User: Which sequence fits this backbone?
């Protein structure tokens, strides 16, 4: 039986008769398999002039190693650059027939090794950089259809250039793409006001399954009660259940904003103040907790136009329809934070100053590295109920100090999401950093929290899933994986495991 039969049914164009070269058999070496894929993806179906496959050593390293994490280098055997859903379908069918694993690369900003090959054979990496188009903008419906390689910042800039007063509010790393954001289940500083990827910001998705079939998870209507919510099934699955090739995202109105900064005697007071301010219901778009070490890092980094008092602090971003509403929000928040020990409340006087203040918060990673020139940083995140955040921060800071290490701490205090950047220079310190992360994760889980609030699971956090969720929950995840991807070719080794090695237990 030939896989070409399925392809011919999907697209009768004679070019794709090259599919006859793919029987359900196992070529002896990877090179012969790649030659088959070149025939499938070349313009004439003869393998010539195929510019969609790279085996260049530098290209392989860029897709199997990252400065953002500390997992061993594991390079793919080839990198493939599709330009359409049809290309992805062909690649998946080829991989399925040859039992070659696939990882997907999008913006390359992940911190837990999501796009790193994690098995032998290492297989191929599908890079979505050539699938970065905005397909449709529906201004009246406040939504937009795009390919997975589109970057969220580029989307917002395009909307601004077109004079469309809408934006996509999820805001992780600047280089993040829609496909990566969808697959990781990201959020960012705007989560207090707009929620996360697992809210309703991704309306539907076109997904290529491991079988080669293409599905759309739901219609473009703003809401639907029709059957299972398959969109959310794929959000946060990190490419283990299917490959996303098109997404409809929801947009929000652009409203005026401004920024304020205030200092506190400790994290407990800052967290109490943030919670009380949010509970007033005024227009707070973001509220970020930064510790005294972070403030010291900002001052040392030298990119800020001002020097901050070195203390645990909150950065607020206010949002309102008018200047008057922004002023009212600032007045209410200033009163509340001062009731909780806040001092030095500084409100931006101009839009330029607001942007400068907020950029100081957004420079967290590089400011942290500036504390110890030549050091590397181990970034990680956990999340707990907001009321447990002070205990988590206090115990983690003490643990880091007792270990003789240096780290900056920031948190999306409005939702309890806590980030640390642990600095190290030697292999011995790297081991200490890894141990600190492990203790931090287990501390968060013990406080009714999670091993990751927004960075995802990947390679770095999967060992904690059973501890957090229980054997039965992880077993159900594995059952879904086994059903949709029985040969385990899609990002194997990520999130949980390939098959149900964790079996359901009786209570």
Assistant:
């Amino acid at each position: 039986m030939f896989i070409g039969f399925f392809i011919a049914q999907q697209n009768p164009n004679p070019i794709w008769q090259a599919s006859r070269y793919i029987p359900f058999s196992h070529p002896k070496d990877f090179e012969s398999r790649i030659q088959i894929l070149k025939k499938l993806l070349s313009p004439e179906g003869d393998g010539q002039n195929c510019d969609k496959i790279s085996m260049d050593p530098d290209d392989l390293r860029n897709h199997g190693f990252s400065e953002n994490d500390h997992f061993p280098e594991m390079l793919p055997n080839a990198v493939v650059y599709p330009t359409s859903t049809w290309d992805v379908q062909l690649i998946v069918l080829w991989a399925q027939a040859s039992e070659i694993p696939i990882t997907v690369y999008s913006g390359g900003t992940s911190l837990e090794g999501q796009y790193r090959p994690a098995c032998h054979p290492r297989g191929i990496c599908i890079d979505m950089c050539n699938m970065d188009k905005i397909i449709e903008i529906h201004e009246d419906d406040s939504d937009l259809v795009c390919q997975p390689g589109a970057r969220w910042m580029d989307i917002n800039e395009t909307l601004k250039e077109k004079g469309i007063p809408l934006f996509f509010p999820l805001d992780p790393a600047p280089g993040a793409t829609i496909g990566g954001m969808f697959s990781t289940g990201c959020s960012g500083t705007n989560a207090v006001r707009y929620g996360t990827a697992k809210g309703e910001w991704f309306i539907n998705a076109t997904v290529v399954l491991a079988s080669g079939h293409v599905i759309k998870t739901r219609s473009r209507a703003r809401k639907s009660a029709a059957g299972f919510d398959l969109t959310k099934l794929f959000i946060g699955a990190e490419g283990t259940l299917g490959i996303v090739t098109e997404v409809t995202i929801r947009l929000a109105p652009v409203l005026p904003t401004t920024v304020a900064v205030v200092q506190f005697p400790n994290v407990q007071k800052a967290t109490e103040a943030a919670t009380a301010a949010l509970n007033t219901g005024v227009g707070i778009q973001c509220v970020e907790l930064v510790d005294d070490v972070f403030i010291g890092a900002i001052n040392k980094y030298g990119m800020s136009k001002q020097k901050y008092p070195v203390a645990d602090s909150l950065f607020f971003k206010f949002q309102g329809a008018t200047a008057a509403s922004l002023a009212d929000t600032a007045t209410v928040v200033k009163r509340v934070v001062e009731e909780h020990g806040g001092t030095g409340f500084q409100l931006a006087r101009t839009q330029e100053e607001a942007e400068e203040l907020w950029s100081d918060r957004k420079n967290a990673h590089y400011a942290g590295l500036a504390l110890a020139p030549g050091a590397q940083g181990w970034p990680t995140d956990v999340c707990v109920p907001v009321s447990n955040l002070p205990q988590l921060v206090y115990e983690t800071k003490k643990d880091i100090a007792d270990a003789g290490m240096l780290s900056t701490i920031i948190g999306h205090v409005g939702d309890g999401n806590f980030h640390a950047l642990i600095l190290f220079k030697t292999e011995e310190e790297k081991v200490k950093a890894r141990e600190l992360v492990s203790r931090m994760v287990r501390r968060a889980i013990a406080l009714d929290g999670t091993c990751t609030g927004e960075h995802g699971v990947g390679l770095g956090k999967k060992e904690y899933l059973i501890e957090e969720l229980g054997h039965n929950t992880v077993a159900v995840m594995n059952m879904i994986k086994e059903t949709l991807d029985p040969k385990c070719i899609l990002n194997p080794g990520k999130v949980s495991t390939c098959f149900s090695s964790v079996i359901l237990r009786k209570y």
Residues 427-446 form the longest helix (20 residues). The chain has four domains: 4-127, 134-253, 257-366, 375-462.
